[in-house]
Amino acid sequence: MRVSLVTMPWHPIDLPSLQVGLLHSLLTRTRPDDEVSEYHGSLRWAEFLLDRSGGRLRPGDYEAIGSDSIFDGLGDWVFSGALYGDESWGVARLREYAAGRGLDIRVASAMRPHAAAFVEECAAEVLAQEPDVVGFTSTFMQNVPSLALAAELKRRRPDVVVVFGGSNCDGPMGHALHRNHPFVDLVVRGEGEYALPALLAHLDAGTAPADVPGLCWWDGTTSRANTESRRTVAPADIPSPDYDQWQAALDASPVQEFVYPKLVVEGARGCWWGEKHHCTFCGLNGSSMAFRAKSGGQLWSEIDHLVRRHRILDVVTVDNIIDMAYFKDFLPLAADSGWDLRMHYEVKSNLNREQIRMLSRAGAVLVQPGIESLSKRVLDLMDKGVSGARNVRTLREFENASVTCTWNYLFGFPGELAEDYAPVVEQLPALVHLQPPGGAHRIQLERFSPNFTDPALGFGKRRPADMYGHVYELPESELTDLVYLFATEDAGVDDVVAGRLQRAIAAWRAGHAASSLVMEWSPREPGEMREPGEAGQPRSGEEATLVVDDRRQGWPRRTHHLTGWRAAALVGLEDGRTEPALHRRLTAAGHEVTADEVGAWVREAHSLGLLFRDGRTYVALPTWEVPIRIDEEAETALPPGAADRAVAG
Known about the structure:
The protein is an alpha/beta fold.
């Protein structure tokens, strides 16, 4: 059997498709007699645009649509005319939608006239491989481009079997996609490692795939949806991806000069935190929350193999949360490997100082810690299991370790109050030296999230998000099953409070690059060597002074000199403490100081922006290091290793 695996726009062009790589490896192992080819439609679309536009539509424009317009559906809209055979379809709808939101649609509009010709060229190139089966992987805005190509394939070769899978096909979305698009023969809902070989066996035998869990298939003119299995794919059955054909396609591509390629790996699936406390807004794990992880040794072996084979040191992990066991096995292996890796990881925000240092040593230069808020009460409403003070501490330690962290400030949770935001907004200027969020955003209602599955949490009224009106020509009843994002009534704080938060974060972002608040012992031990972010030690036998140098934007330029219990107090608040707890710590260390004196100093230090307060807990803000800061665009162009001590500003 000839199988073609296809990934269409808007997959990032600097990354191989993990799904295609996994399935290629899976078929090589389970069906060695099959001929497996790949079609990297995302890369081809970037090439096509560059050529047909005479160089005006460049890979940067591709990335802008693919990464920045997910919540407006522009990527799907570009191909909707090709899907429905009408270049004018959805144009008026998008213009009305964009006018009401101040949305710039010029780039998407310039791309759309090329979509139909591109789909025709894709069909010719895919069918040139004479496949028996064409499998599409679809996530986020890959649905409409994939459907447009699938329809053209069936028009040209009705006997070719079209299979869809991926995150867009999970649960009821997969059945809705199937029953509304008769040219899609089969839809795999959920993980594909067990389902794909089983359905291909049925195609070999010419039998109905009624026993393949979760599969959608046609029984005459009736769309059948097999019951989904609760069984998850065991880590040992998750293959290592095969990226050879992607590498060959990239090497031959005229857009290669615009791309800084990265490898994609997978260590774990599901979310160990979500199994116990599902964050109320998050739907990313879909129907497979159960956490499973490869061993650290296995994951390192796969990365080592891929790095050697492809000679690429940038590695993106797709795990929704890091396996905490990796701090003892995988990360030390990476740190001791000698590879000058630059890794991306998603982590929980309650990591301690040693764990963050280990991430840095292992080569994790970009981390997504899921901070979301700096208010304990709002974090409790999310069921995040962490406090605002702990999140600030995490931001400080990432700064110490020279690790770039990316995060967004979320609001709009049922039950939150203006009083939850006022003290945070008031203190944000003191955090200007720490890494700011990308912005502040009202939460979306996502399928599979607790907010979606339990209307009692506050989002009882919902309908498919407005953007789908210019993406699909389907009734609302079908869209309700097909789509991932939903419109609902705003909850939580109003736009006035949200505006204050957004303006404060904009000021934070503007002032961050030129800001620092750093402390150091004086005098220090001569010749002292320390890890990045590690507190220096005062010279033994002498009374030490803790020098805090304040060079934050918006604050007076000044230097504080702390000695005795005051120096010990600031260092003691690095971990976050209440006033009584701080007093107990100081007296236990032999300092003669009263609770009133400690309280007065805490209030003074807070007024100077040296402390952040979350409820009754205070956390110290000065760092021990000032990392080199570079902008994100420049960072992606650095040679491997050049950003080891750099934090994107």
